[in-house]
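Lecture notes, unit on protein representations.

Consider one protein chain, 278 amino acids long.
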Amino acid sequence: MGQCYIGTSGFSYRDWRGHFYPQGLESSEFLRYYSTYFDFVELNFTYYRQPQATVLEKMLASVPENFLFTLKAHQSITHERDENWHGAVQEFAQGLLPFTEAGQCGGILLQFPYSFHYTPKNRLYLANVSNALQEALAAQCSNSSSTTESTPAIPLLVEFRNRDWEQPQVFREMQSRGLGLIVTDHPDLKNLPQTSNIVTATTAYLRFHGRNKENWWSGDNVSRYDYLYSREELEERLPDVHSMQQASTRLFVAFNNHRKGQAAQNALLFSELLGHRA
């Protein structure tokens, strides 16, 4: 059974003060405090700006050596997808060097938008960009002085926001390429993915977005994910988590319902339900 890591999508939210962080805690201490409760965090800022070594080095200094980071690929790779994507891939991989050398990069998230449909052009792009990322990350690992022969490749994980990618041939192709599928929990709405526990690589991933139907299409990045899961709703997903653990060597569970610390609250409850340490 694979090891299960539970955490949140992002950690640096001022509105978490008084809900998860103590009121007087400085933002520079957020990650250190966070790492006393969780063993991984999903970094979202790398979607908006390319990772920089100096920033990642400071983050590493705030967490234990067994703490892991997963990172969203930059928007130029997943959303803009113009002729400069290859250079963006190289810049992204280069910025990850501190995490690569420390062995604390748990995976890279390729989160594609709802408009990224299952078309020949998009299938080719996904194949090309994943190949380029895998090659760039493998080069980083091989050049790292702390890398050993047993160091695993950094996993690539793909999140589709559109149901038309849910086809057996897509999952087979992902398996052959070693790409992990990101399973999502979200509102039951037309054309959103329905997969509940599919694993296509040794690293599995489950993201809880909340089930806010009213704001899913019309809301912003705050109101869309403004949702607090009940204990019963989380218990419903336990069989899926156990199934994904059985089929993988490592499973990440990230809560993205971040408003006012709801993600942290649900992550702590889910850890309890799975029997993890508090």
